[in-house]
Write a structure and sequence with these properties.
The complex is a heterodimer of chains A (535) and B (313). Chain A is an alpha+beta fold. Chain A has 15 helices and 21 strands. In chain B, helix 5 crosses helix 8. The model of chain B has no long low-confidence stretch (mean pLDDT 88). Classes of the chains: A alpha+beta (535), B mainly alpha (313).
Chain lengths: 535, 313
């Protein structure tokens, strides 16, 4: 009897436990999901490299903003604001900055943020970033006074020191623990530990598919309202999932069906499709947009000749490129400046050849004067990058109209960025022209616009060599006030329209789309996820 | 039989060695440089040179191959150039969705295709046969991605029955797991259904014309018994062969399906690695694909013994 009762109880328990287990299996994830506020986001690209110092990839920069913090940050008015720094002062001889960190700063491993961490991080950044390298040239020393206070001693005044530390786009001087920041600047870090508003969940990272962040509950935000990367970084969700969907049609279907909350960038042809859905908001949250560019190879004919490059200025029509890249004039406009239109240094000084009615006769005359002998012009393009390929197609057509010998060679992006490193002539795998684009913050001044250099073999692909541009750039660095800075930048631009290191092709915006249950998306030239609320 | 299996396994090692050498050589010769991809758009020659040196990409071909082979012999497929994660870990993360997709597709295909092929053969020349063949032609003709988009639009966006994209692990719940596999399996399985159904029909027609089938029918056996018990078993060898060959078709089809449905499987891992020139991943995945393909062929060969006792190894 006792045995039978025990057996019945046991069977009941087993059956009960099985039912509960099945129920839990079937329902557990949804119950768990309801308990948390999870922001599901489709990023512009797949996050592959976690080190925002070794790569300039924008997806890695955005990842950096999730988990790291910065000493200073630039706000929407282009003003530098302290971020991790509580207070700072500059000595009367303008040679020594003293920085004091805010209270309560802590890394994700629980360790406090110390002066030594900040110094090591900035020193590593300065080995890779162009503006950082410029600052390193005038740096005498970085010294920790104590765990919360440190100094930067300069050899000579460098008015851009704080702008450099507040650099908003690649490479951003993010602060890491000293032991990580001591990593060789050409090797990737492997421990993604910062002191920023989100923590990276490495165990859930599936490269090519998913990146997971959780709210850093130890983070102490500033009191000010958020403005670009400055101000209070208040996190209003528990968890953020970056779900990489490589196929645009699938991504559009996913946001339409409510499976994801936010799609960072969509192809222009899908904008009208999403705009029809009342639960989705298609918006421009990037105030600066991006700048398309046409880069020449200065090593070989025909574009080692200034007149050939000037001829392109007279023939290129930015309106065509706006339509080609952005699909609609609402998503872009011509920008006849070497500096991002809408930023303080932008102007149309010297831009006459690029704006106004296109003058093919003048262009042909310049080509004739250049002594062009029918050399083959190889345009390398990438069909998997619509922004690059649409520009390449337009340029090929325009050059053919000018009677030039054009060969458009399209491959994938991986091939393009390898091939553009080639310094061989076109018949040995070299190239004459390639297109790319840069986000607005990377083109705002002579300090950050790396394509606007004349540093020859040490410079960016194409290797233009122009000591005069370098001289004018140095003169700009030496300016100390806004008026003289503007004047010096104008001089750089004047020279640029004469020498033509590259041709700006358009300023365009790739709108973002998010479900209307989201609010608080920050308007900024990079994607930031604090302040975003999900209802 | 055991000796045959051992011989085949040894030949597998030789095949793998050849594959390893060819894959490494091809990647070495293919245009593209992971250092340039890592350095990003804003890079200089010097940046790329430093990355080359750090990754050992500036070393001679034989040194690089020797180093990779030595690690491979120790069970180490290397580390991803981009993520710094071991290739085995990356493949481990991606294997479940691909295996799940392949198995579900195989189940869908076999369960649907073999009865369709048998019925088409039994009713040869009728509207039923013509319908099955028309469906097969359609299945072959419509690209996987087009069919996938139609399924997404209908069942996910319009009807809201099934998810658009993504994958859930089995541990997240059986129903969640299955829901995410239904559309991809149907999309990928359609071509496979068409292929197996046509082969089943052709093979069955051949067998049904044999004397022993007429004898079985004359003995008074039920038509179903004749079809399944006598004809299908004898028609099975070509069907098994096509199923085995179809594994390769599934692997290549899975790349498209995984991309459209954003399934984090091996197919997408491979495409992403190729686009970024992440050599260790490409080498690791191709080696594993080759091993799977060779082993599947071995299993198919061994299965012949079950269907035809006259076959001896």
């Amino acid at each position: 009897m006792h045995t039978n009762t025990a057996a019945r109880i046991s069977i009941k328990r087993v059956v009960g436990a099985t039912v509960i287990a099945i129920a839990m299996t079937l329902t557990a994830p949804s119950v768990w999901a309801q308990a948390q506020k999870v922001l599901k986001f489709i990023p512009q690209a797949d996050l592959r490299i976690l080190d925002p110092i070794t790569t300039t990839a924008y997806i890695t920069r955005n990842h950096g903003y999730m988990i790291y913090d910065t000493l200073f940050a630039t706000d929407a008015k282009f003003q530098v604001q302290p971020q991790m720094v509580d207070k700072y002062e500059l000595s009367s001889d303008k040679l020594t900055y003293t920085f004091t960190l805010r209270d309560g700063l802590k890394f994700h491993d629980g360790q406090p943020v110390r002066s030594a961490d900040c110094i090591a991080s900035v020193e590593r950044w300065a080995k890779r970033d162009a503006l950082g390298q410029k600052m390193a040239e005038v740096t005498e020393s970085w010294k920790a006074v104590n765990d919360k206070t440190f100094t930067l001693k300069l050899k000579r005044p460098f008015p851009l020191a704080l702008e450099a530390l507040a650099k908003p786009s690649s490479n951003v001087p993010f602060i890491m623990p000293e032991r990580i920041a001591k990593t060789d600047a050409s090797a990737n870090i492997t421990e993604p530990i910062g002191s920023g508003p989100f923590k990276f969940v490495k165990e859930e990272w599936v490269p090519g598919s998913k990146v997971v962040y959780v709210k850093n509950t130890d983070y102490v935000p500033r009191k000010e309202a958020p403005s670009w990367a400055a101000g209070g970084k208040v996190v209003k969700v528990d968890r953020v999932e970056w779900i990489y969907i490589p196929d645009s049609a699938t991504a559009a279907a996913a946001i339409n069906a409510g499976e994801v909350d936010w799609w960072e960038q969509m192809p222009p042809d899908l904008i009208p499709v999403l705009a029809k859905n009342k639960s989705i908001k298609v918006e421009n949250i990037d105030p600066l947009g991006s700048m398309g560019l046409l880069r020449f190879n200065f090593m070989y004919p025909p574009f080692n000749n200034q007149k050939m490059r000037q001829a392109i200025l007279y023939a290129i029509d930015q309106n065509d490129y706006v339509l080609g890249i952005a699909g609609d004039v609402k998503n872009g406009h011509p920008c006849y400046s070497y500096f991002t239109c809408g930023t303080p240094l932008a102007s149309e000084v010297g831009a006459e050849p690029l704006k106004g009615k296109r003058d093919f006769e003048k262009a042909k005359q310049l080509i004739k004067e250049s002594g062009y002998k029918g050399e083959k012009i190889v345009i390398i393009s990438a069909t998997d990058q619509p922004i690059v390929h649409s520009q390449s197609l337009l340029t090929a057509e325009m050059l053919r109209k000018l009677g030039l010998n054009v060969d458009l060679q399209a491959g994938d992006w991986g091939t393009l960025i390898t091939r553009r490193t080639s310094k061989e002539p076109v018949d040995k795998g070299g190239w004459s022209i390639f297109h790319t684009w840069l986000v607005g913050p990377d083109v705002t001044s002579p300090a950050v616009n790396f394509a606007l250099r004349g540093s020859g073999q040490k410079g960016w692909f194409g290797w233009p060599d122009d000591p005069k541009i370098e001289e004018l750039r140095d003169a700009w660095f030496a300016t100390t006030d806004a008026a003289s800075s503007k004047k010096a930048a104008d001089a750089v631009q004047m020279r640029a329209f004469e020498f033509v290191p590259y041709v700006p092709t358009a300023q365009f915006i790739l709108p973002t789309a998010y479900r209307t249950n989201l609010s608080g998306v920050i308007i900024a030239p990079m994607t930031l996820m604090w302040n975003v609320e999900k209802k | 039989m055991t000796a045959y299996i051992v011989r085949r396994l040894f030949s597998t090692i030789v095949v793998m060695a050849v594959v390893a050498f060819v894959v490494f050589s091809l990647l070495y010769l293919t245009p593209g440089d992971p250092a340039a991809v890592i350095a990003g758009d804003i890079a200089t020659d010097e940046d790329i040179r430093l990355i080359h040196a750090r990754l050992g990409l500036d070393e001679p071909f034989l040194v690089q191959f020797g180093r990779w082979l030595w690690a491979l012999l120790h069970g180490d497929l290397g580390t991803s150039i981009f993520t710094n994660l071991p290739v085995t870990q990356l493949i481990g993360q991606r294997i479940e969705p691909t295996v799940a997709l392949t198995v579900c597709t195989l189940v869908v295909a076999i369960v649907v295709a073999i009865p369709l092929g048998v019925v088409a053969a039994a009713k040869a020349g009728t509207w039923l046969d013509r319908s099955v063949m028309a469906f097969s032609v359609l299945g072959f003709s419509v690209p996987v991605f087009v069919f996938a988009y139609v399924l997404i639009l209908t069942f996910s966006v319009q009807l809201d029955w099934l998810p658009v994209q993504g994958y859930r692990n089995l541990r997240d719940g059986v129903w969640e797991w299955l829901r995410h596999l239904i559309l991809p399996s149907i999309a990928l399985g359609t071509v496979y259904v068409a292929l197996i159904a046509r082969m089943t029909r052709a093979s069955m027609l051949d067998v049904l014309s044999q004397d022993y089938i007429r004898t079985a029918a004359a003995k008074g056996l039920a038509p179903g018994q004749v079809l399944i018990g006598h004809a299908l078993k004898n028609a099975a060898i070509p069907i098994m062969t096509i199923i085995g060959m179809g594994i390769a078709l599934l692997i290549s089809g899975a790349i498209v399906t995984e991309t459209v449905f954003a399934l984090p499987g091996i197919g997408r891992l491979t495409v992403d690695a190729i686009l970024r020139r992440d050599y260790p991943i490409i080498q690791g995945v191709i080696l594993i694909f080759s091993a799977v393909y060779v082993l599947v062929n071995l299993l198919v060969d061994l299965s012949y013994v079950f269907f035809d006792p006259r076959i001896r190894y």
